[in-house]
Amino acid sequence: RVPAQDPKQRWIEAVQDAQRAMSLVRANAEKLKLDPNRIGICGFSAGGETAALTSLFLDDRKYEAIDEIDAVSCRPNFSLLIYPAYLADKDTGALQEYIHVFAETPPAFFVHAYDDGVTPLSSLVLATEMKKAGASAEVHMYSKGGHGYGLRPTELPITHWPEPCAAWLKQLGVLEKKNP
Hints:
The chain has five helices and four strands; from the N terminus they run ααβαββαβα. It starts with 11 loop residues before the first helix and ends in an 8-residue tail after the last helix. Helix content is 31%, strand content 11%.
């Protein structure tokens, strides 16, 4: 869906969709041959905002339940936040007023470039608040990379971010360690 026009609520439809998707995947985990306790969310840029908020809201669903699927948890078990945008107020540098971090916030892996023109503050401030709350966060901040690099190969060190991400997922027990 296209985000709402209200800047204070521009994220709501995307989070509603993500929450519903989390519940649908978890409700169908057996059929999909997935472990319902190893379901995460990943987002880049504005999608990173959606992924972060979906994790931060825990099971506080942002819409009225419509069927039995909505009784299934919409809380991700972990999040991959790749240059998440809009989490920090551009004027104050603080987290947006509607963002609250709890010890139960799922573990998060952050990747950001310090020269990101949108702002690396979203990652830095959220990770700091997660630490204060007792939640787990791993931050990979690169000096160069800009915004929008995704998985596109470049000559910059940031191009290798999927490698520490995979190691982090193994550490969490999300990815199985392969025997040599």
